[in-house]
Amino acid sequence: MSSHRLRRPPTSSRFATVSLPTRTVDTSRLVRISRHASGEPYFGAKAANRFDDPAKSFGTCYLAFDLLTAIAETVLHDEVPQNGRFQVAKGDFESRQIVRFPGGEDLQLADFTGIALKTLVGDGSISTVLPYTLPQRWAAAVHGHPAAVDGICYVSRHLNDRKAVVVFERAAGKLGAASYERLGGWDRLTRLRSKLHIDYAFP
User: Fold this and answer.
1) What is the DSSP string of 155-197?
2) I need a surface site. Which of 10, 28, 117, 202 has the fewest CB within 10 A?
């Protein structure tokens, strides 16, 4: 899908007058897959992901509402299925952590889903379009809006019947302290891999 179909954000002066649709999200509902057992929440500022700041002036942290989505957005992000199955090295699970934020504050997020998305952005390609040029411009515009929201709630590209979240660095304190659990040791991982059609690929 080409980026010209996605509406560009208005100028900052015009966008400031727009009533930004928002939703409140309990941080204890959110989950993140990380390669590290410390240092979370991590906020990247490399303009490498969908809703990163193109000017690299603030960082972003990506989360999901469930592990299924979190794994699809990370472990399976660059994987291509073969005959309806994903082949993933067992070590790719063993090396990752499930990160949660059980004691954080509620987040106020710009709503990039449903009717709110249609009236604000125009269509759902903001969650799928490549390259990330226009989604990043939207993220910068939302970050600069007078509503000072904590991030964006959007439709997952990899599981489009589910939602994901990007949190702006200025809201780091709202996430609070992180808890960690080894993904490879999670007692329901086998059932989750089955749902996602993942097989272990051994060397």
Assistant:
1) E-SSSTTSEEEEEEGGGHHHH-S-EEEEGGG-TTHHHHHHHTT
2) 202
Residues 115 and 17 sit within 8 Å (Cβ to Cβ): no
Task: Region of 120 please: left (phi>0), alpha (psi -120 to 50) or beta.
Answer: alpha
Q: Strand 107-112's sheet: what is its strand order?
A: 22-25, 107-112, 151-155, 163-168, 60-64, 31-34, 97-100, 179-182
- How close are the terminal C-alpha atoms of the chain, in Å? 35
- Prediction pTM value: 0.93
Residues in the chain, total: 203
Please, are residues 7 and 106 in contact by the beta-carbon 8 Å criterion? no
SS3 144: helix
* Domain locations along the chain: 3-67+103-178
| Measured CA distances, 111 to 21, 57, 67, 99 (Å) | 6, 22, 21, 23
pLDDT tens string 119-170:
999 899 999 999 999 999 999 999 999 999 999 999 999 999 999 999 999 9
Residue located via tokens 């007078």:
146
Q: Which residues contact 152 (CB under 8 A, 6 or more apart)?
A: 51, 109, 110, 112, 139, 142, 165, 166
